[in-house]
Amino acid sequence: MVDEFGNPRAFKMNVDREYERNMERYTFLKWGQSAFSNFRVVPPDTGICYQVNLEYLSQTVWTDVNQNDDEVAYPDTLVGTDSLATMVNGAAVLGWNVGGIEAEASMLSQPISMLIPEVIGFELMGTMMEDTTGTDLVPMIVEILREKGAVGRFVKFYGKGLDSLPLADGATIANMAPEYVATCGFFPIDGETLRYLRTTGRDKDRIALVEAYAKENGFWRGDDYAPNYTDTLSFDMGIIVPAISGPKGPQDYVALTGVKGSVPQRNGRDLQASNGKRSRSRWPRFFDGERQSCHRLHHVFHQHIQPIRDDRRGSCSPQSGCFGSEPQALGENIPCSRFSSGDRLF
């Protein structure tokens, strides 16, 4: 059973119970939102915090009034207490994870000090082939950057490949910064950034300001976009194929075309091909991630598992240990397989 929004009714009951138990707290927080000009509260049942940052709160360019009562514009930044706060870098918002004390100090208008970081320029070239997504691209990027060494560094993505990369995929790559052990993975402001801001209902004047500010201050990724980097890498996205990662980590990239015999057997009948912690971005509203995941599993089964199952069907029976119509493949002696995510959120 689902409600009018397609959510399970049990989930709606949980939200109702949340309000019932914590109404006093939410009333206080709502008062705080009206009492302070720079304090905003997002209610329950809105989404995971790093999605909320990206979909609702981030503006890419902010405005405020200075001590002379002049309105000024400045780039959007974020410090978050969730390691996946880096997702907002997909929308050209410079942000990363900090400790609770640092976050509280920032909320009280105190500065956060840091050393000026080294910046790795990561050039993305080419175009991803049909049936591939950012979740296929991410494990390869993680593998490259782990080999390079990105600890304490910013990674900035650039190149002609961004012309065809949706912001959803960029945000997925930025989301994985903790896995390639960088402070953040940043994407510049370009036409895709503006398209996303329009799609997610940002104010038209804000979108116009983002474009004008970026172009005036050298932040716009145009034909003349050529920042200086401490070091550079490049990668052709055209070689990416549908893939899985794991079972140990998201850098363990395994192309589906070569998955037979390459993923270890576990417990005789259960083969877990883990997608790796944090490797799938969940886009419940604008990017319909659940439907995309179902499409991917359908593709995996019919393109890679079904043909091998059909080849073996003649020898399959309850007595032989096969499970009737269960998929067969991925190894000579493995009677069935199951795919699972490594993160409880997905």
Set out the fold topology:
Blueprint: H1 9-35, H2 49-57, E1 61-65, E2 71-75, E3 77-80, E4 94-97, H3 100-107, E5 119-125, H4 134-148, E6 154-158, H5 167-175, E7 184-186, H6 191-199, H7 204-216, E8 231-236, E9 243-245, E10 253-255, E11 272-274, H8 289-312, E12 338-340
Parallel strand pairs: 3-4, 5-6, 5-8, 6-7, 11-12
Antiparallel strand pairs: 1-2, 9-10
Low-confidence stretches: 265-290, 308-346
* Total count of strands: 12
Task: Tell me the strand percentage band.
Answer: 5-15%
Percentage of residues in helical conformation: 25-40%
Strand pairing plus helix content: what structural class?
alpha/beta
Reading the helices and strands in chain order gives HHEEEEHEHEHEHHEEEEHE
Mean pLDDT: 78
